[in-house]
Write a structure and sequence with these properties.
two-stranded antiparallel sheet; 12 helices; mainly alpha
Length: 367
């Protein structure tokens, strides 16, 4: 492709869906959930609970520039991977693998979590070691078994592309591309990934006919004090964002992933991982940090088989107190899976660019 083609890129001057362009020129989040209190008086799993504050203040141009960066393989050391290679919008912003694949076919340690609604989160990575999107993205960017880049090479590569120089000037008003502005642009795009208009949401806002009877039954089991799913997968984000030790078995032949213990050497967090959101969960199989379970039915049944049933005898894990033995029937497990299907909303899925400023081909890894 010619340089002229890429010079025709025009960054959006309007905000993505779910955002309003303010008089200051920034995009601010708008949702019915902002009308609800942050604490439910409806018991565990109540329907009308407010969402946490969403980080705002990004301009439409910064968000759209982040979209181009997200899909551009120039961010990897050898031009073979983009952020979207492991966080494909068509796969729920995951990649459909048990563990993601980096440069030279290397396997990452864990599966790629979905990016839907990440702007609401306070902790990132399965072990919760990052406190911001900017901090999180530096993990895959510079990990040798993922994108394997370096800060020096990233800056050099982007500053050598005239079209990126032009776009960064538009978005940030700076002549030179900096690491900080790269991280900000990608964070701006990721923050725009909102999924809060599923059939469940319509039901929560008062449209009873949005759910079928079996799905309502599943919701009732999900939020019951027997199944206790909603105590960790708390609406409306369907995560409490906490670290939980649940005793998931590792894939055959792999050693125990100690999870959050590696961050602070706290043995009580051995095997602990961040509670993932269940939004768009049917699109992001396989499940758990290592992709251990292929289906939602398998994952639901794991919780039903008893506290610590999959933990080897030599392991001493502090299983989360919510994990017990609910003894749900097959019909109840099926109804939970039916309900989880109502959490799908990809109506605001961003458009994949037809080309990127580097001129490299768009790359998505096939399963």
């Amino acid at each position: 492709a010619s340089t002229k083609e890429y010079n025709e890129i025009t960054l959006h001057t309007y905000c993505p869906p779910s955002f309003e362009l303010t008089s200051k020129g920034s995009c601010e989040f708008r949702s019915l959930y902002q009308l609800y209190p942050s604490i439910s008086n409806q018991g565990v799993g109540g329907l009308r609970i407010g969402v946490p504050d969403l980080r705002g203040g990004f301009t439409p141009q910064q968000i759209d520039l982040g979209r181009y960066l997200f899909f551009d393989p120039v961010l990897s050391s050898d031009g073979t991977l983009s952020c979207a290679s492991c966080h494909d919008p068509d796969k729920g912003f995951s990649d459909g693998r048990d563990r993601s694949i980096g440069v030279d076919g290397q396997k990452a340690a864990r599966s790629a979590p979905s990016l839907w609604n990440v702007g609401f989160f306070k902790k990132y990575f399965w072990d919760g070691r990052a406190n911001s999107l900017e901090e999180q993205m530096q993990g895959p960017l510079y990990a040798l078994n993922e994108m394997a880049n370096t800060p020096e090479n990233l800056i050099k590569s982007l500053n050598a592309i005239p079209e990126y120089k032009r776009l960064f000037t538009i978005a940030f008003g700076a002549d030179e591309i900096t690491l900080g502005n790269i991280y900000t642009a990608i964070a701006a795009f990721e923050t725009s990934l909102i999924s809060l208009n599923s059939r469940y949401d319509q039901y929560a806002h008062g449209y009873h006919a949005a759910l079928k009877d079996n799905e309502i039954e599943g919701l009732n089991v999900f939020r019951s004090f027997v199944a206790r799913c909603a105590e960790c997968h708390t609406p409306p984000l369907f995560t409490n964002q906490q670290i939980a030790v649940i005793g998931t078995p590792e894939p055959e032949g792999l050693p125990r992933d100690i999870g959050a213990q590696a961050i602070d050497d706290d043995t009580s967090r051995r095997g602990g991982f961040k509670v993932p959101s269940l939004r768009n969960i049917v699109t992001t199989a396989p499940y758990m940090h290592s992709g251990r379970f292929q289906t939602l039915r398998e994952a639901a049944n794991f919780y039903n088989e008893g506290r610590g049933h999959a933990v080897p005898k030599e392991e001493k894990l502090h299983i989360h107190w919510h994990i017990h033995e609910p003894n749900l029937s097959d019909a109840e497990l099926d109804s939970i899976v039916d309900f989880l299907g109502t959490l799908t909303d990809e109506s605001f899925k961003p458009v994949k660019p037809l080309s990127v400023p580097s001129g490299l081909p768009l790359i998505y890894l096939e399963n």
